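Notes to self after the Tuesday call (sharing in case useful).
The group wants a holo model before anyone commits to mutagenesis around the pocket. I volunteered. Ligand is manganese (II) ion. Logging inputs and output together so the record is complete.
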Amino acid sequence: MLTVDLHSHSTHSDGLLTPAELVARAHAQGVTLYALTDHDALSGVEEARLQAQACGMRFVAGVEISVSWQDEILHIVGLNIDPRHADLAGGLHAIRAGREARAVRIAADLERAGVEGALAGARRHARNPDLVSRAHFARHLVECGLAKDTNAAFRRYLTPGKPGHVAHQWASLSQAVNWINAAGGAAVIAHPGRYKLNNRNNEALLGEFRDLGGAGVEVVTGSHTAAQYASWARYAQRFGLAASAGSDFHGPEESYLDLGCLPDLPHGVQPLWSAF
Ligand code: AMP
Ligand code: MN
Ligand code: MN
Ligand code: MN
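Result:
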């Protein structure tokens, strides 16, 4: 039997485990088909691939690309990509440069709100110096006693309308899909139920994504309720998109779902991984 988990994060982005630790944990959890999907970074893929080989587990190289679409930030997962492809690698390099500039602005905003030294603090938590995430700021704010956990840190500081939130332009949807397709991969809309879009916007997004060459929708994810599994399965079927599944695991203390602890896809959808 196949136990699939196609969405998780290591220390190369905002996860708490190294790629090798993550893969070992996935294997121990019974996962048989696994993808590492760090935010905007591919540097963990080779370590994960080697560890998966050692465990005898099927491994898929992946990435989760940050995208600006209309007024939303979307995450587009690329699965089964060639991590050496120049278009993809170059696009991600540019996104990481944008993250660096954003981190400086976030820290300045926090400083105006009386939080000093946030940039150095976030950098201490970022084990990949090339990728500073809001999650690293959140961990620093918790460490300083300014929030009781990372969720509270996001609520009080890092979300729209709060000090420490700055507007930022990510990649476009067409760039993300094109880079993933150029690298031989399949583009998937991550945790679609998390975006603040109404039905009409969801339909606009799915239509545009499919027309750009998108392949699938993450139907089963730690971010969805059981009702959302069903409704996103219907959206996928209506738009001729395949269905993916992933825990979005970031670490033992920070994640709602552990690796591999996912229900089966709803009946009637096309599993994205049957193409791998
Ligand atoms: P960034 O890509 O740097 O804007 O950071 C986004 C990341 O922060 C997400 O991938 C999550 O891992 C984390 N995150 C976002 N919202 C929350 C929240 N409310 N509580 C905890 N972590 C969050
Ligand atoms: Mn994350
Ligand atoms: Mn995401
Ligand atoms: Mn994720």
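Two things stood out.
The two ends are 16 Å apart (CA to CA).
Residues 14, 39, 66, 133-135, 150-151, 154, 250 surround adenosine monophosphate (ligand 1) (CB under 6 Å).
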